[in-house]
Structure formats: C-alpha cells, structure tokens
C-alpha cells in the first residue's frame, strides 16, 4: 500500500449500520455485510508510508524493519537462550 484510501475510512472507523440482527458498512456506493472477526492488514515496503492526518487516529502503524546488526542481535540472543 502507498497510503490509506479515503473510501476505506468508514470501515476503519467502524461506521456500522444495524440492519436487523446484522451489521453492514458502506464502502463507496456498496453496502457490505460486516463480520466482527474481520481484520484489515495493510503492508508496504516503504519505510515511511504517508498516513493522512485524518487516518492516523484509526490506523495502528507497526514497523517491522530491522537492521543487520539488530537481526544479528536477535539471532545471538536466541542461540544463547537455547
């Protein structure tokens, strides 16, 4: 992903609409059933992705980037523990 598309904001904010016993969310011009177990993971190779200010409050950014030295330290720690 290169950024958060505005069409996803209702889903990210969980702007759910109750329709009887079920919940739906409107994405663009479509109304889609919502499952409580749904999780959205977006990934990018960009080390500094642009997250718009209005999406920062509903998106959790996790950086899994590691350096060679950091990776070496993780491997060394695991080898000494075993």
UniProtKB/TrEMBL annotation:
Gene Ontology molecular functions: dynein intermediate chain binding; dynein light intermediate chain binding
Gene3D superfamilies to which the protein is assigned, alphabetical: P-loop containing nucleotide triphosphate hydrolases (3.40.50.300)
GO biological process annotation, one example: microtubule-based movement
Highest taxon of source: Eukaryota
Classification via Pfam families: AAA_9
Cellular-component GO terms for this entry: axonemal dynein complex
Dynein heavy chain ATP-binding dynein motor region domain boundaries: 4-75
Record-given protein name: Dynein heavy chain ATP-binding dynein motor region domain-containing protein
